[in-house]
Every structure is written in structure tokens, then in C-alpha cells.
Amino acid sequence: xxxxxxxxxxxxxxxxxxxxxxxxxxxxxxxxxxxxxxxxxxxxxxxxxxxxxxxxxxxxxxxxxxxxxxxxxxxxxxxxxxxxxxxxxxxxxxxxxxxxxxxxxxxxxxxxxxxxxxxxxxxxxxxxxxxxxxxxxxxxxxxxxxxxxxxxxxxxxxxxxxxxxxxxxxxxxxxxxxxxxxxxxxxxxxxxxxxxxxxxxxxxxxxxxxxxxxxxxxxxxxxxxxxxxxxxxxxxxxxxxxxxxxxxxxxxxxxxxxxxxxxxxxxxxxxxxxxxxxxxxxxxxxxxxxxxxxxxxxxxxxxxxxxxxxxxxxxxxxxxxxxxxxxxxxxxxxxxxxxxxxxx
Length: 344
What we know:
Layout: H1 19-26, H2 30-77, H3 86-95, E1 103-106, E2 118-121, E3 127-131, H4 136-143, H5 145-184, H6 195-207, E4 213-221, H7 223-230, H8 232-249, E5 255-260, E6 263-268, H9 274-289, E7 292-294, E8 297-299, E9 302-310, H10 317-334, E10 338-340
Parallel strand pairs: 9-10
Antiparallel strand pairs: 1-3, 2-3, 4-6, 4-9, 5-6, 7-8
Helix pairs in contact: 2-4, 2-5, 7-8, 8-9
């Protein structure tokens, strides 16, 4: 069985959580926050890269279209007089008009057109002008590549630094949240669980459908006289000593809490029999009967215990606590030390 304080959750026997507590529980963990940030950066990078590639293709298409229109105008202005002038025409178009790698081919001859080249029919002939048009988008992309790489590297380093700082901050906040939650369920004087820890542990057991569980309600005898005669400092020392002794008697899976004042509760999720609970109560009485040494003075305190079990005495934390409280009252009244809520 896992320890009851390991997983806090909303409890039916506890008061409703405050808005601050609900908001704190809803906060994502540091790892999840880091993952979300990384995904957001990746999506941003993909979108920027996609937009850049789209822009390059658009500029290339526009540049090729302009080259085709310019070639048609140039070919209209130049007349071809003889077959032998094709080479001269290609040189003229290549050097004067700037058509890179211009050469003449037969119209419709696809094999004469290499990758990256385009062709325009020469008016009045069965020939076509073939050349490699400038693709300004790709040229600009390659020329700016070094600057882009450096800029991207600086940008990514900045993003990595910022994400690392955010991750460390999220880890620190998560640690503080866990610490604050742990402190909220701890009694500041004895370091035991408090009433909130009891409510959460009880509801956890009930939610998990534990068949039988036992609640021992402890109330110190003579504690008021210690406070009245020796002061609250002595009373605090007595409570700390009681907490230490009880901690040595309970099992690791038991929940030991201080409800407040001089009242303690032991919540046991599994027990063999009522005799086991009676023996535990006797052991507790013997341990707490030992004098508490305060300097040169030894103080004697006792304890009365009320025991309730589920489902015999109740099916909720409130019902079990009330049943154990009634048994505790009978134990004090009859001076029996402990009493069961339900008679054997």
C-alpha cells in the first residue's frame, strides 16, 4: 500500500479547495511546459521555413516568366535571314540580350532541352531558342545563406537560453508548489500530518474501496494541567515527545496525524482483528505513560483512546471520527483507557 500522503486529491470530508489551490493543481509540470515550448518553437521554425521556400518559388516563377516575355520581344525584333545565322543569333542573344547559355534547337525536340532550361519558338522558323533563365529567388536565397545561417544560429541560441531559463524557473515553481503542498498537510509543531492530511488520507482509503479500516482517536489526559501550571512551552514539548513516541509505534503505511490541541489520530488501512487494535491501544497507553522529562522535572501524562472501524461504525471520515469520539468519551468516563465504538 502506498503512503496516504503520497497523492493528494479532493476529499469529500474536507472543505472545498480555495481558488488558489485549484489553480495551483491545474498548473502544468515543468517538463510539460518545456515540451509545449519546444513544440511551439518547432512549429514556428517550420512555418518560417515554409514561408521562405514558398517565397523563393514565387520569385523564381516570376523571374522565369519575365525572361520568357523578354525573349519573345527580342526574337520579334531580330529576323533570321539564313540557316547559317543560327549560331550568330545565339551569340547575339546570349551576349547582348543576356540569355545565358543560349542555343538554337529544333522546335519540339525535348531531348535538346536540359534540366533548368526553357525554350521559346523563333517566329517564322521551325527553330526554338533554348537558354537557362535566371531564377532570382534561388540566387538570392543562396547569396543570403551565410547571413541567414548566422542569424538563425544566434536566434536559436537566444531561444535555447530563454527556454532553459523558463525551464529552470518552472522547475523551481513546481518544487515550491510541492513544498507548499507538503507544508499545508503538516503540523508545524510535531511535523505529523494535520487535519487536512487526515481528510485526504481517509478519503483516499474510501475512494480506493478498502474493505476494513480502523481509526484510533487519542486524547491526552492531564495535558491541560501541564499548560496551566508550566506554560505552553512545556505543553509544546510534551506534544513533540508524544508525537515521537507514537511515530515509533505505528506501521509505515499508517497515517498518524495531530488533529489539534492534544488530539491525535492513527488511521490504519489494514488490520487482522479487533484484538490487534486493542493491543495497539494498550501499547500506546504504555508508551505514553512513561514520564516526559523536562529538565529536572518529570511530567506524567496519560491517554484515552476511542476506536472505530469501517464499515461497521461508518462509511465516511466524519462518521468514523464521530463514532471514535463517542468511544473516547466512554473511555474517559469509565476510566478504561480505551473503548471500541462497536461492542465485540
